[in-house]
Amino acid sequence: METFISDIQKMSTEDGPGIRTTVFFKGCNLKCIWCHNPENIPFYRQKYWLKDRCIGCFTCRDVCPNGAISFHEDGLVFDEKLCVFCLVCADSCPANAIEVKGQSISVQELIKELLKDKAYYEVSGGGVTLSGGEPVLHWEYIEPLVQELKRQGVHVALDTAGNYPYHILQKLLPYIDLVLYDIKAVDSEKHKEMTGLENTQILQNAKRLGAQSSVEVWIRTPIIPGYTDESKNIEAIGKFLKQNMPDITKWELLSFNNLCAHKYRLLGKEWALKDAELISRSKMEQLCKTARKYVKSAIWSGATKAEV
Ligand code: SF4
Ligand code: SF4
């Protein structure tokens, strides 16, 4: 499996402590209905047509050696069966209206890039966060990366949904300082409805992670209207955490936002939550109060809707 990285986001403050550089890996084995990074679900590179930038010159269509581009009522369409990903279209576009998500970069090149901001990490107590997609699925690539970052004294956080055999995570843990672990629901059927897969492995891995003390763990729960925002869901997760992961240092409830809607438009996909409203502040506070019955360090963050 080739490793593609969709983005290297500098000066991030939301994926762990301090100022961080977050690396987004492509490829995930869950399909969460609300996914905020749909470009990171496929493992392969993708082309985007940016309608707002396009000036309608048709150069891309004319230069494509394989006739893989056509224009329809809704705009440019790539025929992926014909496309060989030569990117002549993107290189020839005078308006930069064709973008590519997914670059192949060597571990050494990535380390060099990440170390450019080492001074910021040191003054802010920050570091590097590996996110996605599911970064752990790229463990063969990540292992030498985190080994070198550890050797360089860089704090490393791993943002993971936990759906893989535990022994893979175990290989990486000696070089990880903080695990940001997602638990969306304890009810397996509900989890399957929301993500496409049951959560048996995720919860088993969470228990094993909770039983070791070498790495700090934060739990993150996205609060999604109509899916994970019921008080009984938070109660169930709270009970699970209290029983199996008593040493976590934070449980963060992340309030839903719709900032990713444009990504679905670019990918030509319907987003089930495109009309969903933000959650109110009072509801987030209520859910957080419920969470604190089980985990004292529970907090909430994110956007909320105005209340009258
Ligand atoms: S070359 Fe660029 S600007 Fe011209 S039609 Fe294609 S995408 Fe649009
Ligand atoms: S990447 Fe190459 S083959 Fe694919 S649509 Fe663009 S020009 Fe054609």
General description of the model:
- The protein has 308 residues and is an alpha/beta fold.
- It contains eleven helices and twelve strands.
- It has helices at 59-63, 88-92, 107-115, 118-124, 139-151, 166-172, 188-195, 200-210, 231-244, 261-267, 281-292; strands spanning 5-12, 20-25, 46-49, 69-72, 75-78, 98-101, 127-131, 155-160, 178-182, 216-223, 250-255, 298-301.
- The termini are far apart.
- Bound molecules: iron/sulfur cluster (2 copies).
Strand-helix topology:
Layout: E1 5-12, E2 20-25, E3 46-49, H1 59-63, E4 69-72, E5 75-78, H2 88-92, E6 98-101, H3 107-115, H4 118-124, E7 127-131, H5 139-151, E8 155-160, H6 166-172, E9 178-182, H7 188-195, H8 200-210, E10 216-223, H9 231-244, E11 250-255, H10 261-267, H11 281-292, E12 298-301
Parallel strand pairs: 2-7, 7-8, 8-9, 9-10, 10-11, 11-12
Antiparallel strand pairs: 1-2, 3-6, 4-5
Bound molecules: iron/sulfur cluster (2 copies).
Residues 54-60, 76, 93, 95, 97-98 line the site of one iron/sulfur cluster (SF4).
